[in-house]
Structure formats: structure tokens, C-alpha cells
Amino acid sequence: MKPAITYVISGEPVPLARPRIGGPGRFVYDSQKHTKHVIINDLRRQHGDRPLYSGPCHLEAIYYMRIPKTSIKKRDEMVGTYHIFKPDADNLCKFTLDVASMRTINDEFVLLKDDCIIASISVKKIYDLIPRTEFTITELK
Predict the structure, then answer these.
(1) What residues contact 109, with CB distance under 8 A and at least 6 apart?
(2) Where do the domains of the chain lie?
């Protein structure tokens, strides 16, 4: 059994966007393609040369959301409290799983062979001074 590893994606947590349709030929394109590739490179660096997760796994994700500028006077009180506004936790989680199971340019997977191996999920959205995404993948027996 592989040890649990915690990965960190710096910056504001990103929800998965719907595919866009455009152009004269009405083609479908991914508006987050560049963002995903930047994050993929960072995750590959954090993962190193460890083997991919391939069995049933648990995902624990914490999305640290930026405190709104309108609440700057209450910011110390808000740190660590739950974030109950958009983006939705499920869309944040979908983006995280999407980048964790994508293929790189070299046709290698990032962390997971497929996001369907995630058997259980625990997700939190909380306010913090430093926006980021932290997630841990634990292999289940």
C-alpha cells in the first residue's frame, strides 16, 4: 500500500468549466487547457517518480478560498470558517480530479490512471489568507 501524499495547487481554487462551442465550424474547445497544463506540470513535480494510483482510493480535498475585500475588517475572524458561496464544492472537486487523471504531452498520466478509482471523497471549502487547494490521495484496501 502506497503512503498518502498531500499535493498543493497554489492560487485561487478553480472550478471545472463547461466545454465551450465556437468558431465557424462550431467546434468544442476547453477554455481551461492552459491552466490545466500549468497545474499538471506542478503536480508531476510533486509526485516525482512514484507509481500511479491504480486501486481504489480516497480523496480528501480542502479548498482554501480568498477572503472577500469587502470583509477585510473581519478577515481574522473569517480565517478557518466555512465558505458557502460559489464556486460549488463538486465543481472544484471535478477540476481537481480532471487534472489528476489527465495525460501529459508525453502520453503519461499525472497521478491517477482514471478518476473512477476514487471510491470515497471528503471535501471542504474554507476561508484563508492564502488561497490554494490541498488534496490527499490515500489508497484503500
Answers:
(1) 52, 101, 102, 103
(2) 5-139
Which residue type is seen at 128?
Answer: D
pTM: predicted TM-score of the whole model, two decimal places:
0.88
pLDDT of 54 strictly over 70:
yes
What are the distances in angstroms from CA 88 to CA 2, 35, 126?
30, 19, 12
If you average pLDDT over residues 121-140, what whole number do you get? 96
What is the spatial distance between Cα 73 and Cα 100, in angstroms, rounded to a whole number? 37
**Contact predicate 29/22, CB 8 Å:** yes
CATH fold of 5-139, please? 60s Ribosomal Protein L30; Chain: A; (3.30.1330)
Torsion of CA 117, 120, 126, 128, to 10 degrees: -50
Q: Write the pLDDT tens digit of every residue in 16-39.
A: 988 778 777 778 877 888 899 899
Residues making up the chain, counted from first to last: 141
Chain position carrying cell 495525460: 103
Calpha distance 133→22 (Å, rounded) = 31
Tens-digit pLDDT profile for residues 79-106: 999 999 999 999 999 999 999 998 877 7
Which grid cell sits at 42? 506542478
Q: C-alpha cell of 60?
A: 480528501
